[in-house]
Amino acid sequence: VKQPEIIVVDDEPGLLLLARKRLTSAGFTVIEARSGVSALKAAVEHPECRFMVTDYVMPELGGDLWIRLLERFCGDWTIAVVSSQDVDPGPFLYVPKPVDYDNLVAVFGRLTRP
Amino acid sequence: MSSGLPARRPKVLYVDDQEGNLLVFRATFRKHADVTTCASPAEALRLLEREEFPVVLSDQRMDEMSGAAFLAEVRRRRPDSIRMLVTAFSHLDDAVSAINEGQVSRYVQKPWDAQELLAAIRDADELYWKTRENRILSEKLLHRERLAVIGQVTSGLVHELGNIAAVLTLAHDVKEQLARGEDASEEIAIVQTGVDKLLVLIESLRIYSKGGDQLRLERSEVDVARLADGSLVLLRLFPSVKALRELVVEAREPAPAVVDAKKLQQVLLNLVKNAAEAAPPGAGRVLLEVGTDAEGVVLEVSDNGPGIPTELEERVWGGFYTTKGDKGTGLGLQMCRKIVEAHGGTIELGRHPILGGCRFTVRIPRS
User: Fold this and answer.
1) pLDDT digits (tens, 9 = 90+) for B312-323
2) How many C-beta neighbours within 10 Å does residue B321 have?
3) Strand, coil or helix: what is B133?
4) Which residues of B touch A60 (CB under 8 A)?
5) B241-266 pLDDT tens trace
6) Which residues does B contribute to its contact with A (CB < 8 Å)?
């Protein structure tokens, strides 16, 4: 069985490492992106990917604009929007920071099971 | 007093090395004022360490030190006290130069007239209490403004601490990996950066949180360029600043000045935060420049927001002018101006030629 791919977007290298480790051990192939723009690039390069965990507040592309772009280009994906504040995740899943990866993986599993 | 209220007894310190003069002064004013006299300026300075006197009078001609020199020393220790120099007509020059140099607020000519001098002492006492009241009000405003800012930082701080806490959970991985004989150098390095970030955060919050409510300046030699650079961590705690597309800091050359670092940092934070809030969402650009000119340090904060219409430019300094609805108190810029002017500097609002938004220019003399 091929492992599902997931794009993780965060401008913090430490948080990226943490996400990579937790999600890899949960059975995902993790693609890391340091910004919204490189996440979109990764999405194009990995056409089969349907999962994303993304930070909400990011220096260049972030916030509401980022959510609207994701809605436009990745509307059918399962996306967790991570933030320490209450933010509007659009049609996606809001996940409070710091992320509880066990819980997140379980939720992803429930959401994608047919 | 015309108000009909009982007059407050002014508290006066009189310094003169002629015991006879002290005696006459005490005898004349004992009934109307709370009089302390001292025959030695050095001893008077020691007394001032322990006690504040709203009005301090000194004779000019004293063997130990001149009255003007003594009062200059008083100003340094007790800036609120109203200082008066008592001098004979033949030494008026001394009094004039003392007034011009700001060491005293007025002079009294010898021999003095009791009624006139009492009126002068009462005026000085009145001025002392009014100035003090004004300062306390301003400090209360400053305190409120700081609280408002700290309120905004809280969510950024929670965010930042959450990130650090998450990164620190990697310590657990380090333990397990090492136990299994696996490499954990990447994890250790990341945990270390988390700890470093925490330390920088604590340091910058400490600078900001302690003792910034007094308008009185605590000056020291500061490199303003480094101060600006060091404020970045704190600035990024503001959601509006973190959401900027670009925050460029141009502070390459050292910019030394004798300033109150905490107060100046407050000005800097306020200006950058304002600029970030004025900048367009998703495409905000803020430029923070620190440089020097012949007189001292020049600090400029510019944004690519809509700018402030020329007809409203004067209003931004008045307080309670805000573009942020109920988020801002509108006191930020007023406080910035107060702090800058306390340093003998100026703050001006202009427009950045390329970014198109506001440009605030702060000039602070070197010392």
Assistant:
1) 777 677 655 555
2) 17
3) helix
4) 245
5) 888 888 999 988 999 999 988 888 88
6) 155, 158-159, 162-163, 165-167, 169-170, 173, 186-187, 190, 193-194, 239, 242-245, 281-282
CA distance A53 to B12: 71
Pair of tokens at residue B269:
């934070």
pLDDT for the residue B100 = 79
Question: Rounded to whole angstroms, how far apart are CA atoms A111 and A18?
Answer: 23
pLDDT of residue B243: 82
Q: List beta partners, residue A31.
A: A7
Distance CA B193, CA A16 (A): 13
User: What pLDDT is recorded for position B323?
Assistant: 57
* B159: chain A residues, CB-CB within 8 Å: 57, 83-85, 97
Interface test with B, best of A85, A88, A102, A103 (most B CBs within 10 A): A85
Judged by phi (left if over 0) then psi (alpha if -120 to 50, else beta), residue A61 lies in beta
Among the partner-chain residues A14, A57, A84, the one whose CB lies closest to the CB of B193 is A14
